[in-house]
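STRUCTURE:
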């Protein structure tokens, strides 16, 4: 039964069915077999907050199995060896994956290559030598990368970064500090954004370049892991760069014009976050419906109380709206539109709707909803983080209003 009248190509629906089967075999089964490693934070993480080697091995295994099965690179461009399906496929598959896997089968994060950690259109911009050196391993899921844009003094105002790449012989020396970089503790490469022309950068007319840097480069030091929302470990890190040498083959895109690569990547991140939010929200709503029909109070199922059922009706309305927005914007992007306003609206709305939906699902379950076992609080935390990552809700509202006042009032 579908509530969506949009025409999703049969090919994409078939891949989505196969991805679900893959997730049952490679993700959900893996979490059952390795429950004590993957779902007990004392084992998932080391004392210093990094993932344990055994955990990293598991997520690498999922990436590699997915690459082998043809899912990992489904939306990576064909010129890289990917399948070249666009944003609609990316959205539909991610939404299905999170709806199925929920929050505790978190290895599902590694089934489809995320633009920041794996092959994506961003990698089309690397040099021929870089392709030779890194592409085969990245496409096979053996290695991964991350995206170093944010700095202690440059978050929403990302162009205010201070990291410098100063010319040195035939290359550059990078010095600066990056923060919040997801996957830096486990990635083999990082795309680092640095000022190469201070004058242009100060006038906000380019002057920022992107470089592909191996994380074991001399001078690169992941100083600490950032733990969030009460967790004892994490995947975000703070990294110091001290005279890290890079050569011209490590340049990503054109010199002084790296910032637009960052913006492009973040746009893909907004599709990812929208799809994941809707998937996790649907997963939590379905759990709430199930529980409300079984749990009894005052002699009847709690679903009979409008105080319980009406909030779930609100979740359904909002999830449906977010889902339609997501499919719509993915189609716009695939047709070559930039869809700046629509993408901002979709991401902001989806993650906020998902926060409300996961919170209502927790409330429906009473005390049970607060247990680690159900994973609802983890789902809530994940979508809550997405209200900040890849453009905060306020920055997205700013973008939407800027578009409106430029006359883009198509709705
Ligand atoms: C889970 C997670 C993963 C992340 N992963 C990465 C990563 O891999 N790589 C990377 O480079 N970065 C990453 N980030 C960083 C992320 O991009 C920044 O957190 C985000 O850009 C916001 O910057 P900030 O946290 O410094 O907040 P700030 O920019 O300091 O904002 C603080 C508050 O002020 C508001 N604000 C700021 N400017 C305005 C304005 N003009 N109008 C209205 N309100 C405004 C913000 O909305 C926010 O509420 C990640 C963040 C999170 C939470």
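SEQUENCE:
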């Amino acid at each position: 039964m579908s509530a969506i009248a949009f025409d999703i190509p049969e090919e994409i629906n078939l891949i989505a069915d196969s991805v679900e089967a893959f997730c049952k075999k490679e993700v959900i089964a893996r979490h059952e077999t390795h429950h004590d490693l993957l779902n007990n934070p004392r084992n998932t993480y080391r004392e210093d907050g990094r993932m344990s080697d055994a955990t990293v091995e598991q997520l690498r295994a999922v990436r590699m199995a997915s690459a082998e099965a043809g899912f990992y690179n489904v939306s990576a461009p064909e010129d890289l060896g990917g399948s070249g399906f666009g944003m609609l496929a990316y959205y539909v598959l991610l939404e299905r994956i999170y709806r199925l896997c929920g929050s505790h089968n978190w290895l599902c994060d590694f089934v489809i290559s995320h633009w920041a950690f794996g092959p994506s259109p961003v990698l089309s911009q690397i040099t021929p030598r870089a392709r030779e050196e890194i592409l085969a391993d990245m496409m096979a899921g053996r290695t991964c990368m991350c995206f170093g844009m944010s700095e202690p003094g440059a978050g929403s105002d990302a162009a205010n970064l201070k990291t410098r790449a100063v010319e040195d012989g035939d290359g550059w020396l990078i010095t600066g500090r990056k923060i919040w970089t997801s996957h830096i503790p486990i990635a083999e490469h990082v795309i680092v954004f640095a000022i190469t022309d201070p004058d242009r950068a100060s006038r906000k007319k380019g002057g920022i370049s992107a470089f592909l840097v191996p994380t074991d480069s001399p001078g690169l030091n992941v100083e600490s892991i950032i733990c969030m929302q009460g967790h004892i470990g994490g995947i975000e890190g703070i990294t110091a760069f001290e005279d890290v040498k890079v050569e011209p083959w490590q340049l990503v895109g054109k010199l002084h014009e790296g910032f637009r690569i960052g913006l492009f990547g973040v746009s893909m991140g907004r599709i990812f976050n929208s799809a994941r939010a809707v998937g996790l929200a649907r997963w939590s709503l379905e759990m709430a419906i199930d529980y409300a029909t079984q749990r009894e109070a005052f002699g009847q199922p709690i679903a009979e109380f409008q105080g319980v059922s009406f909030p779930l009706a609100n979740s359904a309305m909002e999830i449906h709206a977010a889902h339609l927005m997501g499919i719509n914007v993915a189609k716009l992007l695939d047709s070559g539109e930039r869809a700046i306003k629509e993408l901002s609206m979709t991401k902001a709305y989806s993650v906020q709707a998902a926060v409300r939906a996961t919170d209502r699902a927790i409330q429906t379950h009473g005390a049970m909803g607060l247990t680690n076992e159900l994973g609802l609080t983890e789902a809530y935390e994940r979508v809550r983080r997405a209200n900040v990552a890849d453009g905060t809700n306020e920055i997205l509202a700013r973008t939407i209003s800027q578009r409106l006042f430029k006359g883009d009032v198509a709705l």
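REMARK: The chain has three domains: 10-126, 145-252, 260-405.
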